[in-house]
Design brief:
The termini are far apart. 25% of the residues are buried. The protein is an alpha+beta fold. The protein has one domain: Alpha-D-Glucose-1,6-Bisphosphate, Chain A, domain 4, CATH 3.30.530.20. A six-stranded antiparallel β-sheet has the order 1-6-5-4-3-2, covered by helices on one side.
Length: 163
């Protein structure tokens, strides 16, 4: 992963690891895209969207997601074996105004019926020194909130899809 600001979060899916793994291995980008689009737009577009509420304002942008690698991971210590998806996203329009996010989604079983999604991502604020200042004032909170929402939406989509 690149240097920059690190964001981590996690969520759970109340389905067996193998079912979650099979779906993500077959269709990671469509799963991410369907999870992040509004219900009305899902049928027509596989673009992804990030949103976060800043007070009463909804800040959002369409993003392009590229999955670079999906690999199995070995268990270490008390952690179970699982999988890791390495991916990145950037804003579809005005990409110089939004950070490029490089991320890993670790997926592993917690129990026979529950799977954890653990997100780790890094980004460099856009716009150089000005962007770093804006990130320190408010941008980092927007990034944290949008990542938590992204992971929560992916987990919810998996829970619903795997019923």
């Amino acid at each position: 992963m690149s240097k920059g600001r690190t964001i981590q979060c996690f969520d759970y899916v109340n389905h067996p690891y193998q079912r979650v793994r099979d779906l993500l291995t077959a269709d990671a980008v469509p799963v991410f895209s369907r999870a992040t689009k509004g219900a009305s737009a899902r049928a027509d577009d596989l673009a992804s969207e990030l949103h976060v509420n800043v007070g009463a304002i909804d800040v959002g942008t369409d993003i392009e997601i590229a999955v670079h690698r999906i690999e199995d991971t070995r268990g270490v210590g008390k952690m179970s074996a699982g999988m890791r998806i390495l991916f990145e996203w950037k804003a579809r329009k005005s990409s110089r105004l939004f950070p490029l996010m490089r991320a890993e989604l670790h997926v592993f079983p917690l129990t026979s019926t529950e799977t954890q999604l653990a997100f780790t991502g890094r980004y460099d604020p856009p716009l150089g020194v000005v962007g770093k200042g804006l990130d320190a004032i408010m941008g980092n909170r927007i990034a944290d909130a949008s990542i938590h929402r992204f992971v929560g939406e992916v987990a919810q989509h998996l829970r619903t899809t795997l019923k």
